[in-house]
Specification:
Elements (H helix, E strand, L loop, with lengths): L2 H10 L10 H33 L8 E5 L8 E6 L2 E3 L2 E3 L2 E8 L5 E4 L11 E3 L2 E3 L6 E2 L5 E3 L7 E7 L2 E8 L7
Antiparallel strand pairs: 1-12, 2-5, 3-4, 5-6, 6-11, 7-8, 8-9, 9-10, 11-12
The chain binds FE2/S2 (inorganic) cluster.
Protein name: Ubiquinol-cytochrome c reductase iron-sulfur subunit
Pfam family, one: Rieske
GO molecular function, one term: metal ion binding
Length: 177
């Protein structure tokens, strides 16, 4: 018989050492696992509560009824209206303003009076919009003439059952017509 076979016999006779879990290990695993499970159970609703509004799909802004169509003229007029806003958990109803008039083709359009220079509020003065802060001027359609780098933004407009409704704000299109 070779020496190798002797060695293998001697190895196979060694007792198998079974590693037992100590009481300390058992307690730490059990308590650690239970604690982790409870912590996760508490954290999931808290994280969901904090993040939920951010994950909600944003609703399109509702249309807001502003004025009777028959009251809109060629000369711009200022109309105030409020919009319900939901920003995360915060809800508000800020008052907004639109200058509403008819373009050359008789279509009704609504301008936002926030100056595109530094955000003051413009006013209609006889033939143009003027900004009191640094002298920006705009045409009736909102095209920027001096100081301001861009035309006044305008609201989407729809007419329904004799009333003018305004919706989302967007870049001015009326001044390009
Ligand atoms: S904010 Fe209107 S001109 Fe400066």
């Amino acid at each position: 018989m070779s020496e190798n076979s002797k060695d293998s016999k001697s190895h196979s006779k060694q007792p198998v050492v079974k590693r037992e879990m100590s009481r300390r290990q058992f307690l730490s695993y059990t308590l650690g696992g239970t604690g982790g499970f409870l912590a996760a159970g508490l954290m999931v609703p808290m994280v969901r509560f904090a993040v939920d509004p951010v994950l909600q799909p944003k609703k399109n802004a509702d249309w807001v009824k502003v004025v009777e169509e028959s009251k809109v003229t060629d000369v711009p007029q200022s109309f105030k209206f409020s919009v319900h806003q939901v920003d995360g958990w915060y809800e508000s109803d800020p008052e907004l303003e639109a200058w509403i008039s008819k373009d050359k083709a008789g279509n009704i359009f609504a301008l936002n009076p926030t100056c595109k220079h530094l955000g003051c509020t413009v006013n209609w003065e006889k033939t143009e919009y003027h900004c009191p802060c640094h002298g920006a001027r705009y045409t009736k359609e909102g095209k920027n003439l001096v100081v301001a780098p861009l035309p006044l933004d305008e609201y989407s407009v729809k007419i329904d059952k004799g009333f003018v409704y305004v919706g989302q704000l967007h870049a001015n299109e009326t001044s390009k017509k």
